[in-house]
Amino acid sequence: MGDVYKALADPTRRAILDELQDRSGQTLFELCVRLTGKGFTSTRQAISQHLAVLADAGLVVLRRQGRYTFIDLDTSPLQQIYQRWRVGPCESDT
Predict the structure, then answer these.
(1) What are the φ/ψ torsions at residue 35 (nearest 5 degrees)?
(2) How confident is the prediction along the chain (94 residues), in pLDDT tens digits per residue?
(3) Which controlled-vocabulary keywords does the entry list (predicted)?
(4) DSSP bridge pairs for 60
(5) The whole model's pTM is what?
(6) Which of 15, 23, 72, 76 is the most exposed, having the fewest neighbouring CB atoms within 10 Å of its CB?
């Protein structure tokens, strides 16, 4: 779960997740264009590095289709965090 917190700590990575929430299945090029339109000045290489952190945390899935790689949002790690505090450690033992 530590990787998820690390991934969410950066504002650029949160912006990437926001963009993927709006429209999952984008290519790196599409994602960069959309982020640039919102005032982010990161290079494609920097966005790729952010995506690697998000993928390591399980928050995005990179799927290859022909020549293109599509980036999909995966919220299951966030659900695990939500469940941890929704149920609470004491309540889950009963």
Answers:
(1) -70, -40
(2) 679 999 999 999 999 999 999 999 999 999 999 999 999 999 999 999 999 999 999 999 999 999 999 999 999 998 888 887 776 555 545 4
(3) DNA-binding, Transcription, Transcription regulation
(4) 73
(5) 0.83
(6) 76
